[in-house]
Amino acid sequence: MMINLPAIVGQTNWLHSGSSVMLVIGVLLFLAVGLAICLGGLVVGWLVRPKLKHPEKGAIYECGEPTIGPGWVQFDLRFYVVALVFIIFDVEIALFWPWAVVFGQGNSQVKTAALYDMLFFFGMIVVGFLYLWRYGYLDWVRSAPEVQEESALRSEARS
Question: Do the beta carbons of residue 88 and residue 127 sit within 8 Å?
Fold first, then answer.
C-alpha cells in the first residue's frame, strides 16, 4: 500500500480517517516534533553559552555560600524519620479519597467490606504511630539519659 503523505496531510481530518497507519504516522510525527523541540533547546543553549573556564566555576558551593567543613557529615536520623512519617500519613490521606467514594456509592456488602478494609489499614498506621511515639522517635529533642536508658532496655531485651 503506497501512502501519499502530502495528500493525507492536506485533508482536514486525516487522523480520523479510520486507518491505523494514519494514527501511527500522527503519533510518530508528534514524538519527532517533541524530541526536536527538546533537543533544539539544548543545542541552542550549548551554542550560545560562554565557554570560558574559570576556577570559581569549579568551586563547590551550597546556595551561593562557601563551604565550611567537610562534605561528609553524619546527619541526625530524626530528619528522615519525620520525613518518612509525613510521607506515610500523606499517602494514607490520599488513599482515603477513593475509599470514601466507594463507601459512599456501594451497597451494604461493599460498604461493610470497605469499612473493615479501612479499619485494618488505619489500625496498621496507628500501631506504627504508637510505636514511634512510645520509643520517642517523634520527640525532636531527646536527652542523653533517655537515649542511654533506651539502649540499656534494648540490650536487656536481646539477652
Answer: no
In the Cβ-directed half-sphere of 35, how many Cα atoms lie within 13 Å? 6
The average pLDDT across 90-109 equals: 82
Q: What angle, rounded to 10 degrees, do the helices at 78-105 and 108-134 form?
A: 170
Q: Are residues 120 and 92 in the same domain?
A: yes
pLDDT at 106 over 90: no
Task: Please indicate, yes or no, whether residues 120 and 52 belong to a single structural domain of this protein.
Answer: no
Number of domains in the chain: 2
Residue 97 is part of which domain span? 78-158
In a domain, 68, yes or no: no
| CB 81, CB 137: distance < 8 Å | yes
Residue pLDDT, tens place only, 43-55: 999 999 888 787 7
CA pair distance 57, 68, nearest whole angstrom? 18
**Contact call for residues 15 and 22 (beta carbons, < 8 A):** yes
